[in-house]
């Protein structure tokens, strides 16, 4: 079997930078002990690595207080922690049709069981939501707005700065799901008036799976919905009020945090803009090539402005899943097919009946040759099965 061409970086980045693998290995061997303030020197050093990671991520997101960056399992965990700790019966929440199930499902749960009202702002034909559509839905009970910074289906970057400003002016909490954007493009908590930011470590931050987090702005109250050991003030039965312990429970994923630190540092060394430019150059090559193939439908805007390196398409008349199976089995190309956990996007695109879309997610280690090979493969599949 020839080398796999991995074009599923929207799901998780693969491979990781070599430094992520080597640092995780050396960290685990040298510092794989429980972190603690009153422990041995080694456990204090381990704790320092966690604090360094908090600081570097806080700086990346333009936050002000690294104690308010808490580690979670991934962004699904972070979003659940935040949503469940904020909304109450009678609240109104405005979100978008671009959301991942990591947002849609917790909100649906509160709608179904806890008398929380939820509205979804639609996106336009180019794949963008509009700030004024949020305002039209606001009412006195609107407590929270949740927006996916970048669609994981169509790759469009949403105008969070304008939406955040509108929320701040009205005292409405603004939560951003940065699962796709963190590490690829600027995520600026202050500029975008973000009260709660959720991120995951294993996508564009180039860390391993099992690590993610939340940045919680000053004055934002997230109720405790879990409790447990923090290694600090153990005589106290009430879970700690102060950050980061307020939202952290049990022994953290130390190796995950170490890998995330290595990922963030690698991005810093390469330059986030340079990586983004590389990926967008390949994405333009991909889009230009797909447009020239007969029997292909590409979704959303052509120019790929305000975009990351995620593209969805279909071979007309042929199930998305079948395209993925052929790409994998016959051509050694990994992609993602189906609804990509974002069912409302597909409802709007009208792609449910075709089993969703085929999604290519370009990453830092993809090359022009990968794109050329993928285009040749799609052209053959479209010529044989498309109509
Ligand atoms: C926009 C978005 N939000 C949330 C998630 C969930 O991420 P995780 O599986 O790391 O929790 C994803 C992953 O696909 C995503 O793309």
What does this protein structure show overall?
With 387 residues, the chain is α/β, with parallel strands linked by helices. It has two domains: 5-16 and 271-385, Aspartate Aminotransferase, domain 1 (Alpha-Beta Complex), CATH 3.90.1150; 18-269, 3-Layer(aba) Sandwich (Aspartate Aminotransferase, domain 2), CATH 3.40.640. It is built from eleven helices and 13 strands. β5 (142-148), α6 (160-170) and β6 form a beta-alpha-beta unit. It is globular, with a radius of gyration of 21 Å. Pyridoxal-5'-phosphate binds at residues 74-76, 100, 102, 148, 152, 177, 179-180, 200, 212, 341. Pyridoxal-5'-phosphate is lined by residues 74-76, 100, 102, 148, 152, 177, 179-180, 200, 212, 341. InterPro entries: Aminotrans_V_dom (IPR000192), Aminotrans_V_PyrdxlP_BS (IPR020578), Cys_dSase-rel_unknwn_funct (IPR010969), Cysteine_dSase (IPR016454), PyrdxlP-dep_Trfase (IPR015424), PyrdxlP-dep_Trfase_major (IPR015421), PyrdxlP-dep_Trfase_small (IPR015422). Belongs to the class-V pyridoxal-phosphate-dependent aminotransferase family. Csd subfamily.
């Amino acid at each position: 079997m020839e080398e796999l061409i991995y074009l599923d970086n929207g799901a998780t980045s693969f491979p990781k930078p070599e430094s992520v693998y080597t640092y995780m290995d050396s960290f685990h061997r040298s510092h794989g002990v429980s972190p603690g303030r009153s422990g041995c020197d080694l456990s204090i050093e381990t704790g320092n690595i966690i604090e360094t990671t908090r600081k570097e991520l806080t700086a990346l997101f333009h936050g002000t207080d690294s104690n308010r960056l808490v580690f979670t399992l991934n962004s699904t965990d972070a979003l659940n922690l935040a949503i469940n700790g904020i909304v109450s019966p009678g609240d109104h929440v405005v979100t978008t049709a671009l959301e991942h199930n990591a947002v849609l499902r917790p909100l649906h749960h509160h709608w179904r069981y806890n008398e929380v009202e939820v509205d979804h702002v639609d996106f336009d034909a180019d794949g963008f939501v509009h700030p004024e559509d949020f305002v039209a839905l606001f009412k006195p009970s609107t407590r929270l707005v949740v927006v996916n910074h970048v669609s994981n289906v169509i790759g469009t970057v949403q105008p969070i700065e304008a939406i955040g400003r509108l929320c701040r002016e009205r005292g409405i909490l603004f939560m951003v799901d940065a699962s796709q954007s963190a590490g690829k493009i600027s995520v600026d908590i202050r500029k975008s008036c973000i009260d709660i930011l959720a991120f995951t470590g294993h996508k564009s931050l180039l860390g391993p799976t099992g690590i993610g987090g939340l940045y919680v702005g000053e004055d934002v109250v997230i109720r405790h919905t879990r409790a447990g050991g923090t290694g600090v003030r153990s005589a106290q039965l009430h879970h700690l009020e102060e950050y980061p312990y307020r939202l952290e429970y049990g022994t953290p994923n130390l190796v995950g945090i170490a890998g995330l630190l290595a990922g963030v540092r690698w991005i810093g060394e390469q330059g986030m803009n340079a990586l983004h430019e590389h990926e967008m150059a390949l994405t333009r090559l991909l889009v230009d090539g797909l447009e020239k193939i007969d029997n292909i439908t590409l979704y959303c805007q052509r120019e790929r402005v305000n975009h990351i390196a995620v593209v969805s398409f279909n071979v007309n008349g042929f199930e998305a899943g079948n395209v993925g199976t052929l790409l994998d089995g016959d051509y050694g190309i990994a992609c993602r097919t189906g609804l990509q956990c974002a069912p409302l996007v597909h409802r709007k695109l009208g792609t449910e009946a075709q089993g969703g879309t085929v999604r290519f997610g370009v990453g830092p280690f993809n090359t022009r040759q990968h794109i050329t090979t993928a285009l040749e493969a799609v052209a053959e599949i479209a010529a044989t099965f498309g109509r």
